[in-house]
Amino acid sequence: MARQTRGHKRTKSLLHYHLIGIGGTAMASLAGLLKAAGHKVTGSDQNVYPPMSTGLEEMGIAYNQGYRPENLASNPDIVVVGNAISRGNPELEEVLIRKLRYTSAAATIKEEFIWGRHSLAVAGTHGKTTTTSLLAWVLESAGLNPSFLIGGVAENFGTSYRLTDSKYFVIEADEYDTAYFDKGPKMWHYLPDTAIVNNIEFDHADIYRDEEAYKFAFARFINLIPKNGVLVAGWDSPITRELAPKSFAPVESFGYGDDTQPPSGQAHWHARDVGFTESGTTFRAFRSNDEWGKVETPLAGAFNVRNVLAVIAAAEAIKADRDGVRAGLKTFASVKRRMEVRGEIRGVAVIDDFAHHPTAIRETIDAIRQKYKGRRIVAVFEPRSYTAQRREFQQDYVKAFRGADEIIFAALFRPDRYTKETALDLDELVRDLASTGKGAKQLKNADAIVSDLTPRLKERDVVLVMSNGGFDGIHQKLLDALARP
């Protein structure tokens, strides 16, 4: 990526940043931003594979395979410690012994890129990556040339980050913790001016002890918005609706709404005349009784209607050109691994999605049902995230998968982390779904699923694969199996 100038009116000396854990998606994107700003960037990680390894190479960023004290021999000015790095890491231990200056990725983003800019921060349990990517693209289409940092590859840009001379910085505001020495959420660092809080629903049970702790993270994020900012709040989320009135900034609320389902609690922004087809979604956007305009978008599902409304409200808050915003909504090319069609062979569509929380799974299945009307939906799920493997969500998963015609589960990704009392019980889940008339089964892994499923697939079937990991390349394995005579 070519170096682009910085527009936040602060002259800073160029530094040598060293990133421990540079191969992670967020850390590699930060490395790219720092390189674009003119800094020297090095790093280290272990087992770095494409696309991260090739991406770092294309950016001209040197890194070491493996964590060793000698990786710090060049005496970097600042060491950025990734949130996957913990005490005992030999390179981190050397940083502490030598009293090298160290910080987190989120704090670096704030210091280097957000101070002095207008921060448009997108938070919420579900939909952050899609909404952030959509917001960046509509602002680009409106001629505002934003910088951005997203937790996925925005297909319109072909990248997860960009640095420009615009005063606007669009960022995905993640509630996950920041670093081993800073257990607060990353989003607390992002100085929100225009903040979207799409929805709030308990997640990340590995770092939040309960729903109250999770709510507090968002309450404090909302408290960071200045009086001259704007909070764009999802009114269909009860917790967001509870927290929003505590904002010191004006609140622009949005809810799904249509002619038959008025928006919850009378949100400012809502949709009317919603229509879903295989090519996308159309509706008319309103703020109260004033029509903003007709929306056409390739995105599918009711949850994406909400995402679009949030983006419209945020764009209006900074007075973005409406025609440009409408053009951006129409030409949005989505995000990799968010309802991404990986291929269609013999009339069978194979779709990849990152969903793992029960609500995200339910809404993704609903969206596929709305998009592919009348087609049989086979949901394939790998319980991989900490949330997905927890017993607390057992009954929620029964409800989440009811929209599919057939459900196949892979085994728990890391069963060793759980006891019988704390682990999701897949046998019980299969029985409960079967009792509702659904075809449901559990198979060991991706290869077993491909072998079992492929011979039974018929034209017009839709296979929706959901995992927040690679799932052993199951998507391509399905497509390859379907292509065989």
3D structure, described in words:
- The chain has 485 residues and is of the alpha/beta class.
- It folds into three domains: 16-104, Rossmann fold (3-Layer(aba) Sandwich); 117-331, UDP-N-acetylmuramoyl-L-alanine:D-glutamate ligase (3-Layer(aba) Sandwich), CATH 3.40.1190.10; 340-483, Protein-Tyrosine Phosphatase, Chain A, CATH 3.90.190.20.
- It has 14 helices and 23 strands.
- A seven-stranded mixed β-sheet has the order 8-7-9-6-12-13-14, with helices on both faces. It has a six-stranded mixed β-sheet with strand order 18-19-23-20-21-22, sandwiched between helices. A five-stranded parallel β-sheet has the order 3-2-1-4-5, sandwiched between helices.
- Strand 18 (340-345) and strand 19 (348-353) form a beta hairpin.
- It is globular.
- The protein starts with 15 loop residues before the first strand and ends with a helix.
- Residues 1-9 have low confidence and may be disordered.
Describe this protein with a few key phrases.
globular, 3 domains, 30% helix, 23 strands, Protein-Tyrosine Phosphatase, Chain A, Rossmann fold, UDP-N-acetylmuramoyl-L-alanine:D-glutamate ligase, disordered N terminus, seven-stranded mixed beta sheet, alpha/beta, 485 residues, six-stranded mixed beta sheet
CATH topology of the largest domain: UDP-N-acetylmuramoyl-L-alanine:D-glutamate ligase
CATH superfamily of the largest domain: Mur-like, catalytic domain
N-to-C CA distance: 43 Å
Rg over CA atoms? 23 Å
Which sheet architecture does the biggest sheet show?
7 strands, mixed
| SS strand fraction | 15-25%
Q: Residue share in helices? A: 25-40%
Q: Low-confidence segments, ≥5 residues, pLDDT <50?
A: 1-9
The CATH architecture term of the largest domain is 3-Layer(aba) Sandwich
Q: How many distinct helices?
A: 14
Number of domains: 3
Top CATH class of the largest domain = Alpha Beta
Strand order of the largest sheet: 8-7-9-6-12-13-14
Helix/strand class: alpha/beta
